[in-house]
Fold Fibronectin type-III domain-containing protein.
Amino acid sequence: MRRPFALGAVLLPLVLPAATQAATRYVAPTGSGGACSSAAPCAVTTGINSASSGDEVVVAPGDYGSEATPLTDVLSPSSTNLDVHGVAGQPRPRIFTTADYGFSIGGSAAGSRISHLEVDAVRPASNPSGQVGFAIVAATAGSPAPIVVDDVVVRRIGGSGYACLVGGVGGNVVRSSTCWSEAVNAPALAAISGLWGPTNAVIRNSTIWAVGGNGLEAQSVATRPISLQLVNSIVHGAGYDIYVAKSGDPASVSATRSAYDPAKVVVAGGATGPVAASNLATPPQLVAPASGDLRQLATSPTIDAGLDDAANGLTALGGATLRTLGARTDIGADEWQPAPQATTAAATGVTSTGATLAGVAGTGRNAGTARFEYGTTTSYGASTPDAAITAGSDDPLPQTAAISGLSPATTYHYRLVVTTPAGTAQSTDGTFTTAAATGPGGGGGTGGGTGGGGGGGDTPPVAPRLSAVRAPATVRVGARATVRLRLNRAARVTVRLVRRSTGVRRNGRCVAPKPGRRGARCTRTTTVRTLSRSLPAGASSVALSRTFLGTRAGRYRLVVGATADGLVAPTATRSLRLLPRRR
């Protein structure tokens, strides 16, 4: 087993003066100057280190420095209530740094949030002394608002030192993030009171992995106690998984639904370590942990083995996958994504020139798209537009699409194609045959002849119509609900859960309120979840599960719509208030 690592003298985070008015700042790999605007982004050091209280810093995707030529300046956001993040839906920005403290969140940054970034700490062989990749060196007294680190990847590449360091009070949170290190004889994550403390922090749904040293080390000194909570987290070290030592004031590491080897836990000097009974001893199965790919394999025992809790956040590592896709939250930073499924259903509304294709999609509650491919052979050749499937939609998800312009009396092939971040699924081939063409209708006969044939042609489809839509006005978190309605014809009904919250208007947009962010009050609407059901004509109901309604109390709207044969019914909107769970 490897002994605990002691870091030499390192630079403390920079403390820079803050401006007085909150703003949105933009940085880019090729940025320069001090404007930090969307039209003229600045360098990452300027954009982050000069941010003022309440500022938002948008970090464009791309590489900042490289492993061969890393940044040398400390990135040190040090004002309160900052929001520093990459661009949602785009790759994480990669920041290569050789500074003693690569990315260091200072004690005056209470209430700040850092998300959707990657920090790669590199040190050349010529400078092998200790280096910290990512550090929370927060306030050490009082009751500051917590700093939240969410969806951040930290890699300690070679050299010596910690990937991650946590210190300070306030209940700071590292969530849906990874700390990976290949440094020899150094932990991936450390709480060392001799460097910074006291410490009170939560490591939630994160993966801590050391290739060459211990996984986690916590060491207290006099007047600087340590309290670390592991929740739904993976901890692994080449030496110890967890090392906790008391020297003076208490040192405690607790664990809930976390994965580590209890035989590789060392508790020294009267410290308090985790209790193995409430955790997972079976080793996690990850893609390539030795090289830093910490995603779960389908065989990993960590899947669906975590603790469901609203504090886990809405999304997993990457920011695009829901935190809970399966029966329960996974242990670790990522959420395993099941492969999509696609099933063919019978086509309906077949005429001489058109039809409505049908199928059933399965996304495992992931976001995705669905489309139909069709043609006169199994090579298909034509397709319908992609239909978006919202993350959180419960399987199965009926899909329909009306097509036209077909040839009469012709056999057509079709299939459903479903795509999610986990891959693409194609249903089996389905077929239908269009009706024969009919004439335009003959005129009356002459002389003693009989009248001609009656008028021909297709009957136009009837548009769907919703009526008698009823839903409860209030539902308590943890309960189910039902939407009742009536349809004039069979249709696909969609129910959207839309959250309403108070925001402030800035630059023509209604954005989330923050300290220092001023503007006229407005109402923000966010679609949280969507479900779809194929329902017959007449009275029907749609069950809303506890998962669909979620765990966040507040004001919502239920927006109910219906489609059939490419025709859309006017939507019906009902107000809904989710009340807090009974205690």
